[in-house]
Amino acid sequence: MTFQENFAAWLAEPSLPTAMKYELADMATDQATMEEAFAAPMSFGTAGMRGVLGAGIGRMNVFTVRQATEGLARYIDTLSVEAKHAGVAISYDSRYMSQEFAYESAAVLGAHDIRSFVFDSLRPTPELSFAVRHLHATAGIMITASHNPKQYNGYKIYGPDGGQMPPEASDMITKFVRSVADIFHIKTLTTRQLRDRELMAIIGEDVDEAYYAQVATVTIDPQLVHNFGKDMRLIYTPLHGTGRIPAQMVLRNAGFEKFQLVPEQGIADPEFPTVPFPNPEFPQAFDMAIALGKEAHADVLIATDPDADRLGTAVWTGSEYQLLTGNQIASLLLHYILEARKQAGTLPANGAVVKSIVSTELATAIAEDYGVAMINVETGFKFIGDQIKHYEETGEHEFLFGFEESYGYLIKPFVRDKDAIQSTVLLAEVAAYYKSQNMTLWDGIQALYAKYGYYAEKTIGVDFPGVDGPKEMAALMTKFRAEAPTGFMGVTIAETQDYKTQLRIKADGTSEPIDMPVSDVLKYVLTDGTWIAIRPSGTEPKVKFYVGTSADTDAAAQDKLAGFEAALDAFRQEA
After folding, report:
1. Active site residue 146
2. Which of 48, 63, 79, 179 is the most exposed place for a label (fewest CB within 10 A)?
3. pLDDT below 70 — which residues of the chain?
4. What kind of fold does domain 212-452 have according to CATH?
């Protein structure tokens, strides 16, 4: 069907809510918006779906949420009666329609006699991952658009291990979602029917307490925290999201007494009124925390995104607050974990760290220094979760830490996704560690550079908005493969890693297979150790370019980074 035909079908649907009818009336004179909303359904993959709120097959609304849940329900129907009884844990964040979408999901599941366990109020994504495992549920649903702007919402599905659904199950669910012919008349039960038939349970404090008990084990050196953490000044902001209660709870439980909440940003407001984007990697997200930090003479500022799976920080340099990158935060956390466990005599001989292929090689240098394996996986935290599951089944390694450069970290595997609550309490401990040496976190990262070399990385996002965006993104990737570069800035490419063809191609033309899932990613490793990677985003209409390099001094590393970025941009413009 054309987008005009899809639009007409929605316009004629009598069950459409009144507000949506008004929205369609406005859209009738806006062909561009109509095409964007009705040309194609939202992409539904291993990370679920994410999109702008509103009417249309390409937007987040009650009908597309029911369709997604119907696909999940049909998948669970193929499993067993026990799987249906084990049920689905459901959580949601502070965005518009999040609670409504959570209850609509339970209503669709109940129509298939599948139980649901719905949180009594908003909770972070990592606690949903924990709840799936804690309740031994068959699956989990998290209603969130993570760090996207206020116009968005999303729908993420988790498997029984608490990680995002593996590709095989996700592909089956996607087929079931696409097989729903009439999204307007998907069977649902009322909340009263769900409760009367014991197909819906409300969960809350019982799961919170179990989660907090596990987070308490993240603290490695309680005595250090007692001696130095209790007087350390911290500023925390949840950026209007789910982190306010859990982050404050775990900090207090660990022994950090002098932390302050940015009060205006502690309100769970779907407008995110104090920030242009609720994303802790953006400097503007820290404006209010910095102002409060200066008043309180704070040592560390911590921000988590709306669903509290990502964490960013700004640290005092002696003259100002400086934001750290996700790679820098991960390197500090990793070094502390390994050093503290080495000092305590608990560093295992078969320890392993897992990171994405586009994350810093500083972490690799640190891991090698401590005799720990570094395992690289494709971008997407589900792949880190897959490694954890593999280690549990085989005993090959003991998981010590996992991270992605995009501000996501996991310390203990009782959660199988990024966990900013765990990361908050550990980062505070790391700050206490450096305070015990009369150092700041800024001093700490400089000390790591001085020891292991100066590493510099940058992620560049190129937007492809509109209905033609996906085609343009695909064309760009095709161009890079068809007109493959041989080098950048005069430095030769030693190896091209193509995760779509699953081949590692050497400069002499020889190749060997890559034992990783198929993914539309290209990575170039240059003869000087610099690497460049390109991948379409799985959640946003953009292609991401990554550059990582190193040198003997910070200035030299930054110069190289700028040079390679310019060379990459020039090649892209030609392409």
Report:
1. yes
2. 179
3. 45-46, 575
4. Alpha-D-Glucose-1,6-Bisphosphate; Chain A, domain 3 (3.40.120)
